Amino acid sequence: MSNLRRSIILASRPKGAPSADNFALDESVMPKPAEGEVLTRTLWLSLDPYMRGRMSDKPSYAPPVAIGAPMTGETVGEVVESRDPRFVPGDVVTGAFGWQSHIISAGDRLTTIPKGAPYSAYLGVLGMPGATAYAGMTEIGQVKPGETVVISAASGAVGAVAGQLAKRAGARVVGVAGNPDKCLYIQDTLGFDECIDHRAVMDLDAALRDACPNGIDVYFENVGGDLQDAVYPLMNNFGRMIMCGMVAEYNDTKTRPGPNLMDVVRKRLRIEGFIVMDKPERFVDWRALAAPWVADGSLHFREHVVDGLENAPEAFIDLLRGHNFGKLVIRVAEPSKGA
Amino acid sequence: MSNLRRSIILASRPKGAPSADNFALDESVMPKPAEGEVLTRTLWLSLDPYMRGRMSDKPSYAPPVAIGAPMTGETVGEVVESRDPRFVPGDVVTGAFGWQSHIISAGDRLTTIPKGAPYSAYLGVLGMPGATAYAGMTEIGQVKPGETVVISAASGAVGAVAGQLAKRAGARVVGVAGNPDKCLYIQDTLGFDECIDHRAVMDLDAALRDACPNGIDVYFENVGGDLQDAVYPLMNNFGRMIMCGMVAEYNDTKTRPGPNLMDVVRKRLRIEGFIVMDKPERFVDWRALAAPWVADGSLHFREHVVDGLENAPEAFIDLLRGHNFGKLVIRVAEPSKGA
User: Fold this and answer.
1) For a tag on chain B, would you pick the N or C end, based on fewer CB atoms within 10 A?
2) How many angstroms away from the CA of A218 is the closest CA of chain B?
3) Is a pLDDT exceeding 60 seen at residue B231?
4) How many CB pairs lie under 8 A apart between chains A and B?
């Protein structure tokens, strides 16, 4: 093992879309864990749209990453050195945060993944995005059989799970995605009833109306922008808008106006935001529910794998453009033999 | 009893603010109740902002009043003739609808009011507006002690009850109203902690920030417009916006833009609309809870009484301008002796 730790740090705050200049590769001396801490070697790093918010010093639900500090991100790592009796070298864990080759964490924050499990799945379908879809659909969506559910970014890490949960609840599910391959996957593999390719249609409002002849009961919002504008007037009485993210607006330098809220009164809409980390029990509940579905193949997921920590900035920039297809993960290193 | 029934009918649909021309007084032959029906003589008529929606043929949660048909409105009436065995002449009931001197109703829709009760209160504090405040505060607001609650149209029929419920729940309550007399009443009689006179302040945003140094946890929305714009950025994490009405925009001929919804995600806001009539049990629950508070004087209410059915159009036009002070009711007729 090299005696250097590699980190991708935030070099400057982006104005609009991030560029490679906003990131830098840093090498530093390998840290040593203190009492109660664990040093992990990163195997997989998760890249997710919310990280755009951490690059900015605009108000957010979490403090921004400081200039010069490592970017934050969920990882799967292998324990190298442990000063927490619950972990021994070779254990594979999730819960360590950072775009880094090695991470020091409080042992309390780590969770062991069973040996041989699909490790990267713990960053996607069984990780934060899966738990996000689960929390939004169960706590806010509360889908009933026969309802129409629209899922934005439907081939993404959150959307793919959200839509499959809606199908399991008996809904008619319409996905929205950004290219024909994604739409094919959404319909053929994920089993959604319809998919709209928002880059291919001439008139998004009309396409959505056609796909939702009975209106929309539940909307899972990941993107905002034009799609939100098209969805809002089609919401049915007692409709729910699950406000998870608005990635299409994350690079905006000027705030767009939103929908007039009179429809919320007259249609009795519920528009509600949530952050999955607010309730850690959601992760436990979701893994207990979904791990068997992943094992038996009934819950589908797709990963977009990029090799090498040094490629994380470019991959992240592409993620915000929707160029990924499936959950974006960086393969930082291979597990050691036996892990 | 005269053999003519007087009705205020909708003569034409308003463009923007309603004017007297949009209404007409109609006289017609006194109707006779059919089997299961009851004829009432109206004592009190309730005028409420939602009726502006019924004058329009824009989409709403209820069908519009037809041109030439009587305007709709809750009343308290005295039974004149009954073909429902549950009612006898002289009974005082609520549940009949119409800007009319006499109304035919299905007996199933009527509820008897105890003799000697403050009849008009069954149109306000114990009626639809009171039940509206109760439903919004309990089902959506869920106020916790120490939270900051802002009430718009705070001296109005709904706002006055909503704010008093928030005080009972242990909140710090800030009212917003449109003149100094209303603000005095809101603080001195209703017991709110602060009141902003939105017509008197130079800078509504600053006034609201000053009145809410800890931000806003719950907003009871009756008005929309500039006040909504001022409230939205001050909402705290996990804040609730109880979307009851937006009277400041009812006369708009062009829809205003609303707030960008990214704050809903990052602050985990809940913005939810409701219509009290969707759940009739709310009326029963509220009357059971609040009738003792009205009887013991601990729940304050104020009525703005206008005499004469023929004055209802002008009073309604003034209501939309905020010229009423307290729950607006029309005294249509006196009860007969013994009722």
Assistant:
1) N
2) 14
3) yes
4) 117
